[in-house]
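Before the break, one more example. Copy the sequence into your notebook; we will annotate it together after we see the structure.
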Amino acid sequence: MFPPLFMAAMLAASAAAATDWQPPATRTMVEREFLRFDPEHRSLKKDRIERLKLLQQQLIDLHLAGSSMHCSTQIENETRWRLHSTTEWSRIDRYLWLLQTSMLDSEQDFALEQTPEDGSWGLCYDQWFKKLDPTIDALNRYATLEFMPTYPMRFLNRIASADALIAQLAELRLSDIAAEGIDNRQPLGGLMSFAAEIAFKPGVRELVNRDPAPLHIDEGYLAEFTRFLDDWQDPETGYWGPWYLIDGKLLKATDLSFTYHIVAYRDGDVRHWDKILTTTLALKEHEYPFGWRFRGRNTNHNAYDVVRILKLGWDHFDEAQRVLAAREIEALLHWTLDETLSEDGRFLPDPEFDGKVSATYYYGVSMLTKAGYCKASGPPFWSVSPFPEARERCCKIAERVVELDRGDRTAMAARQRLEGALPDCPAFSDALAALSGPAKADPESADDSPAN
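Here is what the structure looks like once it is written out:
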């Protein structure tokens, strides 16, 4: 047997040799296909991106000033999707106007309520798949509190059977952008991650099954969906992702977010872990969603996804693979601490990727807790050395987290995740004394959709 460090060196050399490896599909390829659909695509998009950036900063400023702006946040999310994944310029212009107009009114809590007409959440979303994210948010909260929603969730009738769900996933899985001018990745990812969460989380599944609407996830439904996911996984890369028809060839994308959601909601019970590790590390320098980078830089959202994948695969890795994985986790951790976290515990907003301040904190907290930096005692899962300074820094983050809007479910989840890791931070006991109790939310669910 070779010693682990020797094997790690060999694996590292292999990884270095693979730096020329390209994902089967890339952001550059996708953008090129949009230009094939419309040669003016780049110029039409550029001006609207600049307009959206100004509105995104305005929205972040309102968040920082204490306004939740739930409706505006939903409109911004859908506008961002339309701008980057469709070519419907008149609708994009309408949504930019809606976003600007919506920010004139800061009273937007109505956007959190369930809709009586069809039982959905996400009133300010237009697209059906966009409503799935706030819906799963609400369902996790109801499951935690053991409450039932007020209205039947009839808007889920379109996935009432496993056959209906799988047919929609199969249709959305393939995009022919040059012919149709739309990238189906987000509708596919939104439906896939929602279905995975209601199928594989027992509490949420039980709640859905008690609802009077037709959707009922029995063992047969679960088995068919699981089989579809297993067949979808690419055995060459271990990854899941959308498929693209480019130059007459079928390209199976290695999507970091898709893979994270399936691996996470199945609690690591997936195949091809050796390929998942190799592909995850090989994607390091590539652009999201087919890599770790967003416009050439890291994000806490993607860093969290990477760390969670590596943590769930830890028991499947040999010692040499663990050395490689630990090296990357350590590098990501230092980046989070050095580049995104201020001395007073504030995470720097990233309006182009996170969309709202509470999401910035949620993913920053998630990264630090899952990497084992913010924890009550002992070293993280990937190292033998604890971080003696961590408690002080993490409790400073807690001081900022308790200041976030308690009506924002993403903020609630960030607080619960950090409070679960470090319950003795003074900020939590102070807030408990001042209010009725700790926030209740499922810390694994909030804003985890691959909507970006």
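The two ends are 44 Å apart (CA to CA). The chain has 19 helices and three strands. Try to locate both features in your own notes.
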